[in-house]
């Protein structure tokens, strides 16, 4: 706050800080009047609201009485007293009048009204502000935007608009208002400009859905920073645009507080998607998903208030996505990724309570069980294998020391949660970055459709920085430190920029510039940089598996210890203190956080989870899952960086991006808009002084006031001062002009000369002087007439003096110019003479040195000539000697040549023969090598052909497999699509087939039962035949015995009568007795019949009964076989009819493309028969050997 001089007297009007009481929770200051000034510097103040308050004089702020009209100041610098209390009072008064914009010098303060104000925006207002200077019309973002646009066109320099404020203050809406005016000011006469302007506005819903969320302080809070740039050509026409984003709060995707939400796009997708798409994504409208809900009990009912807005915004989001060039498939891919993230959030929803407790306590002995349904759904949406996804999240690979192998161990609940959250955050952040890149590409596509698509370095841009303001929440973490670092840098930049603006104003107004003391943000920035260095070091260790060494507590402890060694950082970073005060970082241990003193106040940070938040590198296993995804869109989100380092610092990247942003801003003329929220509940016509005061302090407005307080805080245009205080001087002073009137006013009321200054168009006053003039005007003070006469005479005298001085100046100038020329000529001559005098001795010495050098050169030349003649004589002698030696050598060589000629000829012949032999050997070797190479080449070609054939087979097999898979998938989709059309018919057919199958099954069971009964009957018949056979055998034996007896009796009678030979009578009987192989009595009887002629009637009767019995058995057996064959024939005919009907249905279904239910049930056919099965009757069941042989005997006979 501005420094007060503390010189208050009884009766002065003051503001006192409001005590923290429940009845004063929304008030920041209490107005009052000084009753008493104590000796110890304490003020006793009578409050306007009633009561007395004792306060130190240094805490009081001076205030002034408003005029009768209760007018407000459009510029805070024109207030009588410039301090935080008077600024707050002016803002509140203007807010009550719906005057939501106020200047503080060149900075625009914007108060969010939370309602529509009629006729405040639109084309009429744009036309009104176009081409007007700041101050000519009431404060407005249009004025700031117009100033930036005209400066860009006139100066051909980039412009920047910095829009800041806390969540809910209206930064995004203000940026939209500025963008609207820039589109209007540029004319948008061309189709390209109109399309770019529309595209810029249409990109905002996408960024809001993907980057905004509901927080405790704002229902549409931007959780990222963005720098929008619009480019203009030399004529000021809009030709291009671009968006750069900073520090998306990716942790909000997986964690958010109670009565808050994650990003809008998730809820908009669930509220706006049609039911068939929800079924495709395996989502249910109204279901509670872990990723989208927090631990609040009233979460579901509380979130219903946003349902209608979500539905409306979903339609707007889809339209905007199509506008930037995404197809329906691309939009579906985006929502598939979001649906996959929702299912990933529910992976551990079915985990046991022990696993959840382990996750909370980081118990290494507990693990998490995955929900199979959520796992399958997430894997399907993301194009991953469910088993691989579950394995990566549940187990991690450890490298075995000394071996080139890995060992898998289960992840603990905490490690599982970390891996899952990092995967979700990485996918969402990459989706956000991909969408922003697509928006920028859409601008390029539009620009490429214009008349000239080449790059133009002469284009200039206006940048609009919409960035989060200073944050001091109940629980501040890594994101808040990054945000506040950006605000520290921007605040320093803001202060320096305002200082330059002040210096420019002083220069423009013709006032001397005096240096001002500025707050230095370097200690805070240096401290945060050191914190990030410590964080990077421990994050590197944490990412490489050193979890026991690198912990959040260790990082906090090392940071505090390192800061305590530096005296400068020691004053910035403090250790946490044990405090029960509400609003502090509740329940934090001493090693879980620290406190940093920022320009806007102290902030307590908790360091829990910083090591994980600072790592932008995903686990290698998770990265492989993304890169190997079957979904091409998800696969494109993979990180293709070949440098597989386990750690990539977010803090380092953020600092680099911040430096790039500041370098970009350094090329721009900057304009500032500070946005404020008047209340926490976001309702109209409510003004919370404490809340607004905190924002005034945090946005740096008080620092701006401090800078102005050290100079001339009150700067008023001449017109305003003349109109305001014209009653303090007689009307006769009006004719002297505004500048002379103001100067006379200052002299008449004895304002000290060092307390005011006149510029070219403004009056600059020190603090308190404007208040003194206001008091005089309120009291009706009148200056002393004698003093006015003196002032008038002084004015007249000054005018005469000025006129005389002007005449004298006109007369003096020609003489002065002539004297200047003469003086310059005399100085030049004197300088020339002085130089000559000084250079004369040096010139003589130089001439002497030149003469000596010439003599030496002549001597050296003569010596050179003599040396040349001597060298030539010596060279002649050397040449003669060389010629003689050459003649001797040639003579010797001729003699040696003559003697060596025969030997040389022989040697040549031998060498020629040897060369021929070597040549022949070389040729043979070459032939062998050629043959070997040919064989190798043939072998290589054969191997290559085999390889090509194998590859072709593999490719063909893979292609066939892919085609078959695709055909199956298409067939399944077609069947699914046509299933609804034939559902009724299929149901009826299935019921009919089911009835037929049941009947066939019953018949089959009946046949099986009959077969079983037949088998039992056959067994019984066999047993009966065996019994009969045994009985016949016994009867045969008895018959044999009787026959023997009868034979004996007959023989006796024959002997007695005829005396025949007994051998003939005995032969058949003996033969029958000896024949053990005769199986039945029929053959024996036949034999007897053929052997005997006069058998008795008893033998014939027995034989006849046996034959009748055998024939009856055979007839019964044949009848039963015919019945069985008839039943089998009937069943086969029914089965053939059923097969024919199924064949016809399959033919019809094949023509229509729909499989019949019979095809699906073919494997369950009630009577499975092979096509080649013959309908031949089964073999005759055995009915006893006697019956078989009897039948065989009759057939043979």
UniProtKB/TrEMBL annotation:
Q: Specify where the region named Disordered lies, as residue ranges.
A: 904-933, 980-1117, 1140-1197
Q: Which family does it belong to?
A: Belongs to the TRAFAC class myosin-kinesin ATPase superfamily. Myosin family.
Coiled-coil stretches noted in the UniProt entry, renumbered to this chain: none
The record ties this protein, via InterPro entries, to: Kinesin_motor_dom_sf (IPR036961), Myosin_head_motor_dom-like (IPR001609), P-loop_NTPase (IPR027417)
The name this protein goes by in its record: Myosin motor domain-containing protein
Which regions span the lipid bilayer?
none
Start and end residues of each Myosin motor domain: 71-778
* Residues binding ATP, per UniProt: 165-172
């Amino acid at each position: 706050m501005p420094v007060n001089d503390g010189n208050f007297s009884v009766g002065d009007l003051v503001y006192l800080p409001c005590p923290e009481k429940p009845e004063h929770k929304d008030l920041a200051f209490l107005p009052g009047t000084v009753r008493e000034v104590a000796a110890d510097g304490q003020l006793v103040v009578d409050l306007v609201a009633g009561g007395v308050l004792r306060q130190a004089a240094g805490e009081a702020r001076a205030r002034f009485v408003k005029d009768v009209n209760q007018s407000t100041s459009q510029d805070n610098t024109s207030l009588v007293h410039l301090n935080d209390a008077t600024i707050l009072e002016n803002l509140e008064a203007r807010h009550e009048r719906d005057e939501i914009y106020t200047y503080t010098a060149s900075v625009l303060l914007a108060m969010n009204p939370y309602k529509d104000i009629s006729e405040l925006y639109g084309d009429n207002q744009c036309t009104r502000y176009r081409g007007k200077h700041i101050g000519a019309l009431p404060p407005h973002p249009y004025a700031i935007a117009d100033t930036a646009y005209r400066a860009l066109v006139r100066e051909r320099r980039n412009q920047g608009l910095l829009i800041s404020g806390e969540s809910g203050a209206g930064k995004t809406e203000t940026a939209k208002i500025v963008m609207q005016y820039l589109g209007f000011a540029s004319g948008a006469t061309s189709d390209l400009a109109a399309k770019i302007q529309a595209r810029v506005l249409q990109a905002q819903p996408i960024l809001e859905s993907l980057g905004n969320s509901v927080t405790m302080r704002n229902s549409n809070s931007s959780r990222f920073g963005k720098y929008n740039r619009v480019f203009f050509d030399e004529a000021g026409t809009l030709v291009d645009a671009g968006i750069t984003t900073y520090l998306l709060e990716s942790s909000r995707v997986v964690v958010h507080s109670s009565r808050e939400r994650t990003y809008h796009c998730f809820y908009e997708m669930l509220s706006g998607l049609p039911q068939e798409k929800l079924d495709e994504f395996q989502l249910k409208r109204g279901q509670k998903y872990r990723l989208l809900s927090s631990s609040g009990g009233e979460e579901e009912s509380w979130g219903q208030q946003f349902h209608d807005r979500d539905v409306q915004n979903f339609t707007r989001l889809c339209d905007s996505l199509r506008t930037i060039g995404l197809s329906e498939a691309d939009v579906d891919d985006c929502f598939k990724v979001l649906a996959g993230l929702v299912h990933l959030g529910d992976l551990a929803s079915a985990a046991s309570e022990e696993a959840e407790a382990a996750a909370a306590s980081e118990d290494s002995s507990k693990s998490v069980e995955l929900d199979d349904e959520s796992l399958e759904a997430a894997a399907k949406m993301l194009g991953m294998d469910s088993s691989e996804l579950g394995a990566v999240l549940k187990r991690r690979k450890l490298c075995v020391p000394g071996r080139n192998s890995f060992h898998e161990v289960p992840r603990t609940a905490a490690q599982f949660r970390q891996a899952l959250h990092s995967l979700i955050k990485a996918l969402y952040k990459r989706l956000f970055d991909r969408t922003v890149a697509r928006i920028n590409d859409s601008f390029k596509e539009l620009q490429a459709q214009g008349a000239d698509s080449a790059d133009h370095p002469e284009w200039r841009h206006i940048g609009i920085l919409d960035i989060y303001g200073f944050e001091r929440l109940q629980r501040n973490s890594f994101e808040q430190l990054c945000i506040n670092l950006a605000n520290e840098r921007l605040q320093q930049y803001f202060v320096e920029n305002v200082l330059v603006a002040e210096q420019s104003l002083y220069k423009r107004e013709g006032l001397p510039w005096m240096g001002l003391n500025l707050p230095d943000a370097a200690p805070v920035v240096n401290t945060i940089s050191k914190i990030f260095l410590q964080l990077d070091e421990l994050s590197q260790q944490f990412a490489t598996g050193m979890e026991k060494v690198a912990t959040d507590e260790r990082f906090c402890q090392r940071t505090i210890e390192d800061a305590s060694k530096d005296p400068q950082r020691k004053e910035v970073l403090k250790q946490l203190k044990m405090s029960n005060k509400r609003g502090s970082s509740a329940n934090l241990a001493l090693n879980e956080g620290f406190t940093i003193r920022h320009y806007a106040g102290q902030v307590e940070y908790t360091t829990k989870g910083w090591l994980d938040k600072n790592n932008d590198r995903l686990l290698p296993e998770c990265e492989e899952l993304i890169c190997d995804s079957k979904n091409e869109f998800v696969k494109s989100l993979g990180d293709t960086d070949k440098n597989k380092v386990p750690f990539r610092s977010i803090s380092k990247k953020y600092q680099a991006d911040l430096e790039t942003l500041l370098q970009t801003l350094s090329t721009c003329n900057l304009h500032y808009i500070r946005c404020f929220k008047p209340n926490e509940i976001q309702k109209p016509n409510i003004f919370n002084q404490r809340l607004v005061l905190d924002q005034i302090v945090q946005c740096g407005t008080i620092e701006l006031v401090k800078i102005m307080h050290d100079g001339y805080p009150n700067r008023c245009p001449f017109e305003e001062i003349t109109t305001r205080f014209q009653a303090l001087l007689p009307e006769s002073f009006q004719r002297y002009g505004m500048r002379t009137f103001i100067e006379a006013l200052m002299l008449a009321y004895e304002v000290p000369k060092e307390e005011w200054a006149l510029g070219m168009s403004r009056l600059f006053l020190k603090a308190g002087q404007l208040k003194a003039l206001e008091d005089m005007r309120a009291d009706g003070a009148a200056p002393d007439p004698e003093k006015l006469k003196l002032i008038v005479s002084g004015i007249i005298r000054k005018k005469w003096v000025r006129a005389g001085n002007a005449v004298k100046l006109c007369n003096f100038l020609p003489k002065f110019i002539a004297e200047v020329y003469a003086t310059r000529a005399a100085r030049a001559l004197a300088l020339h003479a002085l130089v000559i005098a000084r250079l004369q001795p040096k010139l003589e010495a130089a001439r002497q040195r030149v003469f000596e050098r010439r003599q030496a050169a002549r001597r050296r030349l003569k010596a050179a000539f003599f040396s040349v003649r001597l060298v030539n004589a010596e060279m002649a002698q050397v040449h003669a000697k060389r010629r003689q030696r050459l003649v001797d050598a040639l003579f010797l060589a001729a003699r040696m040549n003559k003697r060596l000629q025969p030997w040389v000829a022989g040697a040549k012949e031998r060498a020629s023969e040897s060369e021929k032999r070597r040549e022949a050997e070389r040729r043979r070797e070459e032939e062998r090598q050629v043959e070997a190479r040919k064989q190798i080449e043939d072998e290589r070609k054969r191997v290559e052909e085999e390889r090509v054939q194998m590859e072709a087979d593999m490719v063909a097999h893979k292609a066939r497999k892919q085609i078959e898979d695709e055909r199956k998938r298409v067939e399944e989709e077609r069947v699914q699509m046509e299933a609804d059309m034939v559902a009724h018919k299929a149901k009826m057919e299935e019921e009919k087939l089911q009835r037929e199958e049941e009947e066939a099954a019953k018949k089959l069971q009946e046949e099986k039962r009959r077969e079983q009964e037949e088998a039992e009957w056959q067994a019984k018949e066999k047993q009966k035949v065996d019994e009969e056979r045994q009985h016949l055998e016994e009867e045969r034996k008895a018959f044999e015995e009787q026959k023997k007896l009868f034979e004996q009796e007959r023989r006796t009678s024959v002997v007695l009568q005829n005396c025949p030979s007994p051998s003939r009578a005995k032969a058949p009987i003996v033969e029958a007795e000896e024949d053990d192989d005769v199986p039945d009595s029929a053959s024996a009887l036949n034999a007897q019949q053929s052997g005997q002629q006069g058998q008795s009637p008893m033998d014939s009767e027995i034989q006849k009964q046996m034959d009748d019995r055998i024939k009856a058995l055979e007839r019964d057996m044949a009848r039963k076989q015919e019945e069985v064959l008839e039943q089998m024939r009937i069943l086969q005919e029914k089965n053939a009819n059923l097969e024919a009907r199924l064949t016809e249905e399959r033919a019809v279904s094949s023509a229509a493309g729909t499989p019949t239910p019979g095809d699906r049930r073919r494997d369950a056919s009630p009577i499975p028969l092979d096509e080649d099965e013959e309908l031949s009757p089964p073999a005759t069941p055995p009915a006893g050997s006697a019956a078989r042989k009897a039948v065989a005997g009759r057939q043979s006979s």
